[in-house]
Amino acid sequence: MNHRVSAAFFLRDVTKVAPELLGKLLVRRFADGAIQKFVITETEAYRGGEDKACHANRGLTPRTKVMFDEGGLVYVYLIYGMYWMLNFVTGEAGDSSAVLIRGIEGISGPGRVGRALQLNKSFYGENLGTSERIWIEDSGLKPQFTTAPRVGIDYAGEPWISKPWRYIVK
User: Fold this and answer.
1) What is the domain-level CATH number for residue 154?
2) Which of 19, 56, 93, 129 has the lowest tally of Cβ within 10 angstroms?
């Protein structure tokens, strides 16, 4: 029996949460009631205000507000006017860190993940501990993984573009 991950799981440093999400089940109940479970295969960590690649680096804005809340909430944002990017807030309130879900079993790329999960703005701020639409379950899997630099953040400069904060199941 799989169990929903506790809120405490997300109240830790983003560089601990991001690799530990690998192998967990991302569960989505769709509008028609169908439930699908996807193994998380790739994540990226964004460490709050200090991280020049993190949206919260520029401080509290209407877009980043949820990132400053306690971990365990969903942060979604739209890119290119068409792709909803799925992130999970981590750490204590004020930390402003989040994990980007870059891949799930059979789907690579955060835009494709958002599309497959049928995400939209209504998921912003959703609580993973109580949501009936999206949550994380422990699968018991502890897959081996490799690390790599994060993708598409050249604007952040060094040392941020070289941090090995991308985690990929082997």
Assistant:
1) 3.10.300.10
2) 93
